[in-house]
Each structure stands twice: as structure tokens, then as C-alpha cells.
């Protein structure tokens, strides 16, 4: 938000008058939002009203995985655990938003944390701000996705604004996960490479396989939502507490659909910042 | 030698400083130049740095205080005598013993906030921006906590004065952006909730299972505690009124305690889990401005973006409300620009 002229005639007085007239409200008349000021204002400007902070959590016990020490393989029990627990947390958050009559959830943060619950227990927490649109999308229809659920998006308010401006609407957060065990090297291989700088094909291939699996699963979720594409994809590797050779590859992004045919945005004004 | 103080009103040292600032007309502030300019641009002037502090003794764990009572009738018994899988969640917002503890935290924060507001009024301010609320233990006495809030008092141009000075966690730019778009901060709020749940038989068996399984009792505990904190935030917001709450931070802490109830009943060693959620935010109220709020202008910066990002990163890292997600976004953006 820029270009406020230094002359603020009347604005502070209006603001102070409102404070002077304040009266205690009903608890239900106030909504909470997890957005920063920028995000709050941009979401409003994009034509959405925040209606409440929504939460979802799942504390999940991860079962026992039997794996082979010397083999590259996906650890399916662990993959499923990560999937299922995230799904539970997200679904609960969506259910809260649906109960509020929301069209979508913006600024979603989905975190995994290991706290005091014990070694095999992971804690999945989702938090976001439910929003309701002022108007139906241009061209009719609903802001909700093809499953009738509020859309979810982990984009910041700034990105959300830009997306809507460019004629796209978010459909939902899509994710893919793969927990992969990277084989330990055989003794012979270790010795034959001693003192050489070489590629370890086995490791390269393991990383490739795992990432491809995670991305393919994300792709499948986006296809299920009939998305045109996925924006803001992050592909991360988490080690959690499984030791050096077991890694979770997790990709997450926001699936989008077009709102109109042209995706022109107004030409940005170029600015030269004087402070750096 | 300090002057004796009854505990009501401002401490003598603070009252003295207020009188001096008032008399000299020189203001102090922790605002950066940018924040200062932003506040000026929407018609507010800083009047001085204000602070409120209160040191409370907060004892909490153990039998003597009894705050972390799980209220589970089956606690202390074995599986066959009722300790099956229906442990309730004792949430402070629904009047569990922990409510008294939350009450102590709330009144300590309130006291600090009131003292800051009193300083603001003493300087003729209309409200406080960039108020940062912190809680820190004394090094030698960890159960004595100092609740401190520090911010910059500002005064609006014109003759209209609010009923109560507003307080807000927003920095100068955030405040200016809000006011320019027709929103004014009302009050800094803290919603807190503590929940206790006994690790009953079902929870234990779920957490030792060889299968993938959700530990339902713990999920419920976390969900109840966070929902309660959200409810407390809303309840507190309705005290003065307003239209929305903008959150500054939300924290969740989980730990285990040995179960008081089981120990009192038959000295058996069982455990409870305790979760504590704290949400900090500011209520804001909408007002009708005479002027159309400025439209957002998309820009393409030509300057040295790297430096700018580094500064923003440093600001987020040093802020008590620094958002981890924002920190990561900035780091990522910084990596992209190659700075």
C-alpha cells in the first residue's frame, strides 16, 4: 500500500471518533485472523472478507517400518503415516471453515512438529484464515472447489492478491510425500571408490526416485481437482528423527484454475527505492 | 534510595519520568525513521516511549498448587478398574483448576498493559503502537516472572480524543497502512488456555501400537486447547468492541507431568499431558474515512533488492513476534535474488 499523501486531513479524527464510540460487542461479532496487516488489507482488496481463524490438528503415532538396510526403497508405512496425518489435520481445518460458511482458506500453514509426545509420535498442525468472497467469481459458479469444499491456499496475502488479479483462483493445497530409505553402500563399493571423487549413482538414483514419487503424487492430487496448474511449489526434504538414511521428500503447492481467458495484469510501475 | 510505593498507579520512578517528559516537550521513541514517517503520514505524532511492567510470582507445577489436575475419575486405577479410554480434557476456559493459573497470567498482563496505558495518558497520548509484550523469568528465581510491555505512545491530530487509549502490536508501517485503509487498532489482547489430559489406557495403547494410528486423545487435547485460546481471544476482544482481531503470534507448548490425581489416590506413577496455547493479537475497528483508501500499486523495484530483503530479514529475526513462515519466505526470496 503506497502513495498516502502527507496531508492526512480528517483521517486521524475519524479514527479517534470511532474509538470514542466503541461499545462492547458480542463475542461472535468479532472475527479473528492470522493474517498480517499487509495480507489482511490485500485479501480485502481482492474482494474477500476474513471470517475467522480455523485450526486443525492431528497427533499421530507412526507404526513400525521393516526396511532393508542395503536397498533403495520407499518406506510405505512411514509415507502413509505422513499422508494420513496431514490429511486429517487439513480435513479438520476445512470442516471448521465449511461450518463458518467460508469460500476458502488463505495463508494456510501446515507444520509437523515433534514435541513431548514421544519418539514415534508426530504432531501435524494446520492453521489458516477462512475467507468469504463479496461476489461470486466472474463467469458464475462458486469459489469452492469441485468437491464442494472451501479452497485452501498456502500463498501469502500478497501472492493471493496477485493470483486473483491475474485471473486465477486457488482450488486447494496439493501435496505429495514419499519417505525413502537410501541404501547404505556396500563395503566393496566403499573401498573401490576410496580416494576418488566420483558420482555415487546409487545415491543419485535414490534421491531422484524419491523426489519423482513425491512430485507425481502431488500432480495426481492436482489432476483430481481439475486444476490448470500448481503454483508456489516447495519441494523439501525432512529428516525428522529417522536417522541419516531415511528422508521424507515432501512437495506442496497450490492448485489453481483460470477465472478468465486472458491473464494480463497491469504493467507494474517501476520504482527505484531510495533506501537501498 | 527509591521512594516507597503502594502498588497502585504508576511506580514513582515512572511518574517522575512522565512529568519530566511532559514538562520538557522532548519525546523519545523506539520508532525507526520509516515508522516515524509512516505514522506522521496518517496524522499521528509520537509523544514518547512508554512501558508497563509487573513482576509476579507464578508457582505452577506440583501438588501444592494443583493447577494441573486432569479431573479423570479413573486416574490411578489399572485398566480393569475404569481407566479405559474416556479421560476428559480439563480446559481452563471451562473452569478446570488451571483456570486459576490462567487468571494469574491474565491479571499480570493486564497490570502491565494498564501501567503502559497510564503512562500513555500521562503524556497526553491517544494510543500505543509497536507494543511488544514479553514474559521473562528472573535468573535467580525462575518462578518469578516479569511481564513487560513497551511501545511508543502517539497522539492524533485534531480535537477528537478516544475513550480509552488504544494499544496495538502493529509497527509504524502496519499502523499507517491500517489507518489509511479505514481501520483503527483498539486493544492488544492475549488469549491463553491450558488443558490437561490423563494418558489413559487407550492413549497408551495407541502410542505403543505397531500400526500407523492417530492418538485421538492427544489430538483432542491440542484441538481443545487451541480452540479455547481462540475463544478467549474473541471474548477479550468483545470487552471493548471492535470488528476484527489481527493476530501477532500463536504459540503452543506441550509437556508431560506426573499425574497428581493418581499420586494422591494410591501413589501410582501415571502421567498427564499438559498443553498451553497463547495467542496474541490486536482488535481493530472499521471507520468511515472521508477519503477513498489508496489502491494497491504493483511495483517492480529497480534498486538493490538484496539489501532491502536483508534488512527486513533482520527485522523479522529480531522481532518478538517474528513469524517463522515469513522468515523462510524472505530467506527464499533472498536466495532467488542471489543476494
UniProtKB/TrEMBL annotation, chain A:
- Organismal lineage: Bacteria, Bacillati, Actinomycetota, Actinomycetes, Kitasatosporales
The membrane spanning regions, by residue number, are none
Q: Which family does it belong to?
A: Belongs to the UPF0145 family.
What is the name of this protein? Heavy metal-binding domain-containing protein
Origin species:
Streptacidiphilus cavernicola
From which domain of life does this come?
Bacteria
Q: Which Pfam families match?
A: YbjQ_1 (PF01906)
Amino acid at each position: 500500500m503506497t502513495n498516502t499523501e502527507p496531508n492526512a486531513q480528517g483521517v486521524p479524527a475519524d479514527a479517534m471518533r470511532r474509538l470514542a464510540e466503541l461499545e462492547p460487542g458480542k463475542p461472535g461479532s468479532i472475527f479473528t485472523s492470522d493474517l498480517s496487516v499487509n495480507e489482511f488489507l490485500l485479501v480485502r482488496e481482492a474482494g474477500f472478507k476474513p471470517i475467522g481463524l480455523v485450526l486443525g490438528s492431528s497427533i499421530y503415532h507412526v507404526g513400525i517400518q521393516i526396511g532393508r538396510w542395503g536397498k533403495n526403497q520407499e518406506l510405505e508405512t512411514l509415507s502413509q503415516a505422513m499422508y494420513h496425518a496431514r490429511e486429517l489435520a487439513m480435513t479438520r481445518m476445512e470442516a471448521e471453515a465449511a461450518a463458518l460458511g467460508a469460500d476458502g482458506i488463505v495463508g494456510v500453514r501446515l507444520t509437523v512438529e515433534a514435541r513431548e509426545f514421544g519418539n514415534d509420535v508426530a504432531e501435524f498442525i494446520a492453521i489458516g484464515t477462512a475467507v468469504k468472497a463479496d461476489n461470486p467469481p466472474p463467469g458464475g459458479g462458486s469459489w469452492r472447489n469441485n468437491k464442494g469444499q472451501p479452497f485452501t491456499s498456502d500463498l501469502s496475502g500478497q501472492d493471493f492478491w496477485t493470483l486473483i488479479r491475474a485471473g486465477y483462483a486457488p482450488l486447494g493445497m496439493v501435496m505429495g510425500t514419499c519417505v525413502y530409505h537410501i541404501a547404505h553402500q556396500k563395503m566393496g563399493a566403499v573401498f573401490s571408490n576410496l580416494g576418488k571423487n566420483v558420482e555415487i549413482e546409487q545415491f543419485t538414483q535414490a534421491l531422484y526416485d524419491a523426489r519423482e514419487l513425491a512430485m507425481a503424487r502431488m500432480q495426481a492430487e492436482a489432476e483430481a481437482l481439475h486444476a490448470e496448474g500448481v503454483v508456489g511449489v516447495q519441494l523439501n526434504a525432512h529428516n525428522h528423527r529417522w536417522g541419516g538414511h531415511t528422508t521424507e521428500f515432501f512437495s506442496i503447492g497450490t492448485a489453481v484454475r483460470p477465472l478468465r481467458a486472458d491473464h494480463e495484469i497491469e504493467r507494474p510501475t517501476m520504482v527505484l527505492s531510495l533506501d537501498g | 534510595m527509591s521512594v516507597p510505593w503502594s502498588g497502585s498507579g504508576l511506580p514513582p520512578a515512572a511518574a517522575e519520568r512522565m512529568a519530566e517528559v511532559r514538562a520538557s516537550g522532548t519525546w523519545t521513541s523506539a520508532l525507526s525513521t520509516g515508522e516515524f514517517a509512516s505514522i506522521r503520514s496518517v496524522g499521528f505524532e509520537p509523544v514518547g516511549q512508554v512501558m508497563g511492567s509487573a513482576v509476579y510470582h507464578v508457582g505452577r507445577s506440583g501438588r501444592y498448587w494443583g493447577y494441573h489436575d486432569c479431573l479423570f475419575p479413573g486416574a490411578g486405577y489399572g485398566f480393569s478398574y475404569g481407566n479405559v479410554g474416556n479421560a476428559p480434557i480439563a480446559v481452563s476456559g471451562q473452569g478446570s483448576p488451571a483456570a486459576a493459573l490462567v487468571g494469574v497470567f491474565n491479571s499480570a498482563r493486564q497490570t502491565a498493559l494498564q501501567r503502559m496505558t497510564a503512562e500513555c495518558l500521562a503524556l497526553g497520548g491517544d494510543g500505543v503502537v509497536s507494543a511488544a509484550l514479553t514474559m521473562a523469568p528472573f535468573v535467580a528465581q525462575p518462578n518469578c516472572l516479569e511481564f513487560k510491555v513497551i511501545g511508543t505512545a502517539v497522539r492524533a491530530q485534531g480535537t477528537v480524543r478516544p475513550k480509552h487509549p488504544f494499544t496495538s502490536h502493529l509497527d509504524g508501517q502496519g499502523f499507517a497502512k491500517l489507518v489509511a485503509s479505514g481501520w483503527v487498532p483498539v486493544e492488544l489482547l492475549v488469549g491463553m488456555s491450558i488443558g490437561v489430559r490423563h494418558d489413559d489406557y487407550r492413549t497408551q495403547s495407541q502410542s505403543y501400537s505397531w500400526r500407523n494410528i492417530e492418538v485421538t486423545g492427544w489430538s483432542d487435547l491440542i484441538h481443545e486447547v487451541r480452540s479455547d485460546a481462540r475463544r478467549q481471544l474473541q471474548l477479550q476482544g468483545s470487552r471493548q468492541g471492535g470488528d476484527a482481531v489481527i493476530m501477532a503470534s500463536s504459540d503452543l507448548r506441550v509437556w508431560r507431568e506426573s499425574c497428581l490425581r493418581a499420586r494422591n489416590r494410591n501413589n501410582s506413577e501415571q502421567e498427564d499431558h499438559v498443553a498451553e496455547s497463547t495467542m496474541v493479537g490486536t482488535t481493530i475497528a472499521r471507520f468511515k474515512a472521508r477519503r477513498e483508501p489508496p489502491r494497491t500499486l504493483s511495483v517492480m523495484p529497480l534498486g538493490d533488492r538484496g539489501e532491502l530483503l536483508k534488512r527486513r530479514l533482520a527485522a523479522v529475526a529480531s522481532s518478538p513476534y517474528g513469524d517463522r513462515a515469513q522468515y523462510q519466505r524472505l530467506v527464499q526470496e533472498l536466495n532467488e535474488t542471489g543476494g
